[in-house]
Design a protein that fits this description.
Elements (H helix, E strand, L loop, with lengths): L3 E5 L2 E7 L5 H14 L13 H14 L3 E6 L2 E10 L9 E8 L8 H15 L4 E7 L3 H9 L3 E12 L2 E11 L16
Parallel strand pairs: 5-6
Antiparallel strand pairs: 1-2, 2-3, 3-4, 4-5, 6-8, 7-8
Amino acid sequence: MNETAVRASDEPVLVRSSRESDVEAMLAIYRHHVRAGVPRDVEGTGAPEPDDLRDRRKNLKQTRLPHLVATYRGDIVGYAYAVLFRKRPAYRYTAKHSIYVHHAHLGRGVGRLLLQELIDCCAAAGFRQMIGYIDADNAASLALHQKFGFTRAGLLCGVAYRHGRWSDTVMVQRSLGAGTTTPPPSATPGR
């Protein structure tokens, strides 16, 4: 994967594939979101352990699904990845994604860069649909996804309990490549 550079505050933000050495910085970003606010990925209530993230990276590398970081002045300021939406073969053309941005870099275009690269990587790997789950209170993430052509596919009411209250989750969806206009090739994407 080539690094992608875009100007942000007169310095480039680079998006590249994650490395083993990025794990601790990614975990620090995730832990902050869990402790302080609304995470973009509402599946967990606690932070994964470093070995969990290393295993996830290894598994994604084997399937050629993207696991990315954004860097600014050499520091990790965000990360994103895609996983199979479901493990059953019928769903092999649909990816689910997650994006996390360092709290000090929210609103600076980091999420936009990561989302664009996820879309491009998944489309290039032959995926036809991309799904995301976003906390209903996360207006910035919902707006970002709408700008990238995601539409609201559903509302899951009261599915997360954190910070002393129940939270709703919005499911968003976007077609990739030919979407549902043509049958998929016989080969499994990303393999």
